[in-house]
Amino acid sequence: LLLGCELTASTKSYTFQVDKEDDSDHILALSVVCLTDGAKDECNVVEVVGRNHENQEIAVPVANLKLSCQPLLSLDNFKLQPPVTFRLAAGSGPVHLTGWHKIMHREDASFEEDDDLSEEDEEELPPIMPAKK
User: What is the 3-state secondary structure (H, E, C) of 30-68?
Assistant: First the structure.
């Protein structure tokens, strides 16, 4: 699924989240951050706001865009786990963010069964014979 949002002086943040009852794994990958029509020649700092392993909010700048020197930044599918907020920490934008959202459905207990099967397969393999000279 494609993702797109725009940060401006009036809309400084966008939060991407999934339903708490959804037990699928979600990956959000940020591809490109760029200035769009109407941007001034000023520094536009975009932050990603998330939570660390202690559930504390952390904000990390991922882009500093300026029309005259760096209007676009490729983030090479920078992967994040929702919920995540994109925030325009400095500047007035507009800054457009694009990326994709991938959903991986979990299968009940299939991981354990697969492991058991692979161990059995390994035991049934014949021993490796030395090469004939």
Answer: EEEEEECCCCCCCCEEEEEEEECCCCCEEEEEEEEEECC
DSSP secondary structure code for residue 9 in this structure = S
Better-predicted residue by pLDDT, 25 or 74: 74
The ranges assigned to domains in the chain are 2-104
Name the token pair of 27: 């990956």
The token duo for 86 is 């994109």
Give residue 133's pLDDT band: very low, low, confident or very high (50, 70, 90): low
Distance, in Å, from the CA atom of 104 to the CA atom of 99, rounded to the nearest integer, reads 17
The pLDDT-based confidence of 63 (bands split at 50, 70, 90) is very high
Fold exhibited by the domain 2-104: Jelly Rolls (2.60.120)
